[in-house]
């Protein structure tokens, strides 16, 4: 069970491969630079050469850090729904998201401009709805492929002058596979050639049926151009959300998901996240995919700095060691030093995986702490 080549071990210890070869010869082993060593041998050589070896077992580190999290779930509350808009190209997804954003967010609060952070939330009748601001299927598919489920409700936009199209069907399949309820927004009803009833009929084939026909899908006729029906759509989202009884704890250390990330030249890595459980506080230590960090600042979707982030409200976080990937889990942990170790460990595992995909040898599951 060989885990590391002589050359790799030399790199980790910052010595020349020839030094290892010489050392091993003294110990009675003849090896070449590309030969791989097993764990015991690698440890022996490293220690013989004066290095302290820490062996990280796959689960131990992570288990330790996860075990020491405060996951008190005393305070369970209803949380806002997270809504994804899906549908065929040109059926009006962007127009709908824009209409809702422009009419429902008090952009004056942010000094005129509403930042684009991949998601936004609005308040309707004192209740909050969060929209994933990434129209199309990309975000949804990316999340799903990474095993992350973030969407509570899919609003399926179907243009009433065009009907069910390939991407409409694809969206239905994604939502159904994920068991996410589908709310149908029949769009462009302002158009003279609009045929909303025809859309309803076309959808029967895909098991999408309005309540009056014995199904359980909510249908709303809208126009993303004139705004007609959009208040009704928002009310329906709240209704659907109530039926889902979305609850989570707001006490204890937060967990969440990354929905977007980028590198800001001045501020460093920035991630937009949605908290799923608990409350995130400024100064918290997080593990985030392969990265870790101490939360330096939290900003809401209006660009305002806040001290906390609660479930389902999108926020930007600053302070990560690198740029995470959409779908990465964010987990608040208790210990920065240990978080760093886990992050290093995860990065190593990640590189190993990439390497083993390319070549047959397996890189170590040991590494040096110098
Ligand atoms: P997306 O590809 O699904 O994001 O679709 P867009 O929002 O970009 O819309 C495609 C086109 O349809 C644009 O020219 C929109 O102005 C137009 N459109 C969207 N919604 C409506 C609507 O309700 N009525 C009318 N008449 N046009 C619309
Ligand atoms: Mg679009």
- Look at the helices and sheets and give the structural class: alpha+beta
Low-confidence residue ranges: 359-370
User: What is the helix fraction of residues, given as a range?
Assistant: 25-40%
Total helical elements: 10
C-alpha Rg, in Å?
Answer: 26 Å
- Broad shape: elongated
How many angstroms does the end-to-end distance come to?
Answer: 25 Å
For the largest beta-sheet, the strand count, sense and barrel status come to: 6 strands, mixed
Bound ligands: guanosine-5'-diphosphate, magnesium ion
Number of strand elements: 21
In round numbers, the mean pLDDT is 87
Which strand order spans the largest sheet, edge to edge or round the barrel? 6-7-5-8-9-10
Strand-residue proportion? 25-35%
Topology of this structure?
Elements: E1 2-5, H1 6-13, H2 17-26, E2 36-38, H3 39-48, E3 53-55, H4 58-67, E4 76-78, E5 82-87, H5 93-104, E6 119-124, E7 127-132, H6 138-145, E8 153-159, H7 166-177, E9 182-187, H8 196-204, E10 219-221, H9 230-244, E11 247-249, E12 255-264, E13 268-277, E14 280-281, E15 285-288, E16 291-300, E17 305-306, E18 308-309, E19 314-320, E20 329-333, H10 336-358, E21 366-368
Parallel strand pairs: 5-7, 5-8, 8-9, 9-10
Antiparallel strand pairs: 1-2, 3-21, 4-11, 6-7, 12-13, 12-20, 13-19, 14-18, 15-16, 15-20, 16-17, 16-19
Bound molecules: guanosine-5'-diphosphate and magnesium ion.
Residues 93-94, 135 line the site of magnesium ion.
Organism: Buchnera aphidicola subsp. Schlechtendalia chinensis
Binding site for GTP: 87-94, 133-137, 187-190
Domain Tr-type G: 78-247
């Amino acid at each position: 069970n060989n885990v590391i080549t002589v050359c790799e071990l030399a790199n980790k210890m910052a010595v020349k491969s020839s030094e290892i070869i010489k050392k091993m010869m003294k110990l009675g082993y003849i090896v070449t630079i590309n030969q791989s060593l097993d764990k015991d041998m690698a440890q022996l050589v490293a220690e013989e050469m004066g290095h302290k070896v820490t062996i990280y077992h796959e689960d131990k580190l992570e288990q330790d850090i996860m075990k020491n999290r405060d996951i008190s779930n005393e305070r369970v509350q209803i949380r806002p729904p997270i809504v994804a808009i899906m549908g065929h190209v040109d059926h009006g997804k962007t127009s709908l998201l824009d209409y809702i954003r422009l009419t429902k967010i008090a952009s004056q609060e942010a000094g005129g401009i509403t930042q684009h952070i991949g998601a936004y939330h609005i308040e309707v009748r004192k209740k909050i709805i969060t929209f994933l601001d990434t129209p199309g299927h990309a975000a949804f598919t990316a999340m799903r492929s990474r095993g992350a489920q973030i969407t509570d409700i899919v609003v399926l936009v179907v243009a009433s002058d065009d009907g069910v199209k390939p991407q409409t069907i694809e969206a239905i399949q994604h939502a159904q596979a994920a068991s996410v309820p589908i709310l149908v927004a029949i769009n462009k009803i302002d158009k003279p050639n609009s045929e909303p009833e025809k859309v309803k009929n076309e959808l029967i084939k895909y098991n999408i049926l309005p309540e009056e026909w014995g199904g359980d899908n909510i249908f709303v006729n809208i126009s993303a151009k004139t705004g007609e029906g959009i208040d009704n759509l928002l009310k329906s989202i709240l209704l659907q959300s109530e039926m889902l009884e979305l609850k989570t704890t707001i006490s204890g250390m937060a967990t969440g998901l990354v929905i977007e990330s980028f590198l800001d030249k001045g501020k460093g890595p920035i991630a937009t996240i949605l908290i799923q459980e608990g409350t995130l506080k400024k100064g918290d230590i997080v593990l985030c995919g392969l990265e870790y960090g101490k939360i330096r600042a939290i900003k809401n979707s209006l660009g305002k700095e806040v001290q906390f982030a609660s479930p389902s409200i999108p926020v930007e976080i600053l302070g990560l060691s690198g740029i995470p990937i959409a779908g990465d889990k964010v987990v608040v942990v208790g210990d920065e030093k240990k978080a760093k170790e886990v992050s290093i460990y995860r990065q190593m595992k990640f590189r190993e995986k990439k390497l083993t995909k390319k070549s047959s040898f397996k890189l170590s599951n040991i590494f040096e702490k110098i």
